[in-house]
Amino acid sequence: METMKVQDITPNDMPWKLRYEASRCTLCGSCVAACSFRAIAPKVERRRLVWSEGDYPEPKQRFSAVPVIRQVNSLTNYCRGCGICEKVCPNDAIGPVRNQDSRHPIVTRCLAGDSVKRGGRKNLEATVRTLDRLRVGRISQMTDPSLDAQRHTFDLLAPFGRILPPGKLPFTVGAGGNLEVTGQSPPVRWIYPVIIGDMSIGALSWRMWEGVAMAAAYLNEECGLPVRMCSGEGGVPIKLLKSRYLKYMILQIASGHFGWNRILKTMPHMVEDPAGVMIKIGQGAKPGDGGLLPAQKVAEHIQAIRGVPKADLLSPPNHQGLYSIEESVQKMFLSFNAAFKFRVPVAIKVAASSTSVAVFNNLVRDPYDIVGGFFLDGIDGGTGAAHEVSLDHTGHPIVSKLRDCYLAAVAQGRQGQIPLWAGGGLGRTGDLAADAFKMICLGASGVFTGRLILQMAGCVGNDMGRCNACNTGLCPAGITTQEPALAHRLDPEKVAQNIVNYFLAMDQELKKLMAPIGNSSLPVGRSDALVSTDRGVAERLKIQYVC
Amino acid sequence: MCRIGAIKSRHYIHASQALQLMQSQQEGHDNSGFAMVMQDLGGIFEGYKHLPTLSMACTDQGLKTAEDMMHAAGFQRVLQWVPEVNPEPGLDINAMPNYVFETFDYPKPYKKASDQEKQELLLDMRLQLRTVLEDDEQGYVYSFWPDVVTLKEIGDPRDIGTYFNLWQPDNKFTARVITAQCRQNTNYDIVRYAAHPFFLQGYTALANGENTFYQKNKEMQRKLHRGYIGFESDSQCFLYTLHYVHRQLAWPLPYFKHVVTPLPFDEIGRRDDHQQLQGIRQSLAHLEINGPNTIIGVLPDGTLFTCCDPKKLRPLVVGRSADVVVFSSEVCGVNQILPDRDWETDIYPNEREVVIIGNDLEVQRWRQ
Ligand code: SF4
Ligand code: SF4
């Protein structure tokens, strides 16, 4: 028998324990092969069988060695609760069970002396979300009848780019009594109000990224939905940069500038402009933290795209050299606007924070009219890899912050001039249309979503600590890994199909929400269409309280 | 539901015509009020076309306050017309003690001022009066502008007509352009200011419909111009947008329609002027109306027009004779005023159309 010390790590210290029924197990080995975390292993147990055959007790015993599947006692290879073993087991013999008494947060820190990292999302509160306390309560009837969601044409489009105040439009009345264009306006693209959020090729497996890019192209070319996808920091394959599909891509630059060398070098060979450029200043799920791509995910093709050796790739928490908002506007925005000869809108993405309104105000007053979008990312978003303490304890919810920014613009008569895009945990219930619609009524021009896209592809993680191992490079679904064997678990075509179908469903649902309020264009800022059953929420968001 | 109407005539017509136009449609509204704006005035005001007339309903105290303020500001009264009223018992009217139509000469320092300066002065003066008279509901100032009078009252239009002696045509109270509406706006509070037509610096607008982007319009307009106030009715937004597009931005009238009812993006993309239309759609997105509406407007030069939202659930018919053009929510209104016209020339404007009546009464129809 093994000797155990109380300090030793055993499954009851872990966040998940395995339910295993030896009697059902045929020892096929599927679960062990499928567990990308190597959290289970075959083992031999010594068993004693006692029996008696006569009319009175005459115990006999037999010892045997029995092969079984057991949880590994290790802090590196611990069970993430992903449930893949359960999925592959033909006999329902094994599966993870949440361990209420886990000591994991303590023992990992005690043993490793290092901060805990993980991927995924904030896992602390499971309270009712603000968005679920809002309802579309202004229903058109009688005086302005509802529209027919099936038959009416809806303009489901949102602006990406700087919009001039009306007085600054470069129009003059010509001789024929028509307005003539007599100057330049900043580029504005009208796109689908849901952007596929910034997830880098590196954080994602190349097969996942390919599937998403395929979905974006299909949605545009076959379904007529002008959906844009943001590259994330870390570059774009050269083939795509040189292809006409580049027009569906928003290229991201973050503080690490990864991948930009290649993008800049490819510029002369581009046949289309990208849809936009997004300067990422911060991320809602881990504000104050830069990007983090652990060495185990820096495979050869990632090294090539990013132009780096195999090592932990850390983006600094801020853009070196930017110390003020004025600088950010002048330096970064001007240079990126200039790079594409002022033909491509340039937007900024920041983590929601109690200071967001101040930042937004500064940008909205910028005299150069070059900030083409304010992407506000809330605390409930996901991420590929981050320190747990940042994920769980830093950040700001998105709903009230988006509303604050919109109302700040209203107070200055500048609503709409810098389109507001909101993200961070939207679609958490699986219903993105409702969340998007409510955010739009509160003042967002559109929304962006990342994590939900992973879930469409088959991510098994959730907000209650399930999986969230995107940082390990061992994603059991093949989504956030660069291990060829794991990545091949994912079928890019199926990913694309799921995303396309989800968007088609969402498109119908958005129309189902537009119809009853009688609108054929997006009701940006129509907070009169919303009511809240929570007095605090109603007051904070300046909408009607109902009960 | 509102009923709206307008008459534009080569010759001066009496206000009773407007009452008759609306009375014939009484089954379509709730008889809860009557309001009209008369422009290009005849009768007693004809000789004072270049001087501003104040239209006001007020208490005795309000009248004194207003006159003191006008005096202090240097305006000199040159004409006063107080309609004789018939306070018969049993009339359904919520009357104010005084109805005042007073014409003033400009303050001395403004005698040689530009039109622009005078126009700003008149607006400021009206806004000041309105603010001061708001205390204790001393009074309501509807317009202060040359060649324009406004009357708004709560009650049964028939009784309002009787009270003001408006059923009797005479040659004192006449105009070439009259816009009128029955029914107080009941979506919001019943206040006198909430009744269309609304008037601002030469522009008049009235509407039948529902402005579902009211909140967006209101939030945007509040910051666009000091005269965009009140918002007692969602239809006021149409006036402010008309004023903003045509006067402040100085864009030709067709662009008003492109602002309030922009074309779908794919149609804009197919047009030669797509840069202009897209620029308008994005910069003025918050002035879109997006709801079933029919609008009637009058420009400072007397041009009368109508347009509507593409959802077009609110009808309007245009009937005409050689000397008169009538806009009416229901055709019975036109029949009342122009019983002998050739009804085959009636126009039922479609959702993409603006119908414009110039001062020569020539009808233009623009496709958006
Ligand atoms: S739940 Fe996932 S991590 Fe846990 S043992 Fe099964 S496959 Fe491995
Ligand atoms: S399934 Fe993959 S993407 Fe989803 S949480 Fe687990 S590791 Fe992350």
Topology:
The complex is a heterodimer of chains A (547) and B (368).
Chain A: E1 16-20, H1 30-34, E2 40-51, E3 60-71, H2 84-88, E4 94-98, H3 104-112, E5 117-121, E6 134-136, E7 158-161, E8 171-173, E9 179-181, E10 188-191, E11 194-196, H4 206-221, E12 229-230, H5 238-241, E13 249-253, H6 260-266, E14 276-280, E15 292-293, H7 300-306, E16 313-314, H8 325-339, E17 346-351, H9 356-364, E18 374-377, E19 382-387, H10 388-393, H11 398-411, E20 420-423, H12 432-441, E21 446-449, H13 451-457, H14 484-487, H15 492-514, E22 530-532, H16 535-541, E23 544-545
Parallel strand pairs in A: 11-21, 12-13, 13-14, 14-17, 17-18, 18-20, 20-21, 22-23
Antiparallel strand pairs in A: 1-4, 2-3, 5-19, 6-22, 7-10, 8-9, 15-16
Helix pairs in contact in A: 4-15, 9-11, 12-15
Chain B: E1 3-14, H1 16-23, E2 33-41, E3 52-58, H2 60-72, E4 76-81, E5 98-105, H3 115-134, E6 139-146, E7 148-154, H4 157-163, E8 174-182, E9 198-200, E10 203-209, H5 214-221, H6 236-248, H7 254-260, H8 265-269, H9 274-283, E11 293-298, E12 304-308, E13 317-320, E14 324-328, H10 331-337, E15 353-357, E16 363-367
Antiparallel strand pairs in B: 1-8, 1-14, 2-7, 2-8, 3-5, 3-6, 4-5, 9-10, 10-11, 11-12, 12-15, 13-14, 15-16
Helix pairs in contact in B: 1-10, 2-3, 6-7
3D architecture notes:
The complex is a heterodimer of chains A (547) and B (368). Chain A has 16 helices and 23 strands. Chain A has 2 domains: 11-114, Alpha-Beta Plaits, CATH 3.30.70; 132-163 and 193-455 and 467-545, TIM Barrel. Chain A is 27% helix and 19% strand. Chain B is an alpha+beta fold. Helix content of chain B is 27%, strand content 29%. Chain B starts with a strand and ends with a strand. The chains are: A alpha/beta (547), B alpha+beta (368). The A-B interface holds A 140, 143-145, 147, 153, 155, 157, 159, 163-167, 169, 171, 173, 177-181, 185, 188, 190, 410, 412-413, 415-416, 517-521, 523-528 and B 1, 187, 209-210, 212-216, 219-220, 222-224, 244, 248-252, 255, 262, 264-265, 273, 275-276, 278-280, 282-286, 288, 290-292, 310-311, 313. One iron/sulfur cluster binds at residues 82, 119-120, 454, 459-461, 467-470, 475-477, 479-480 of chain A.
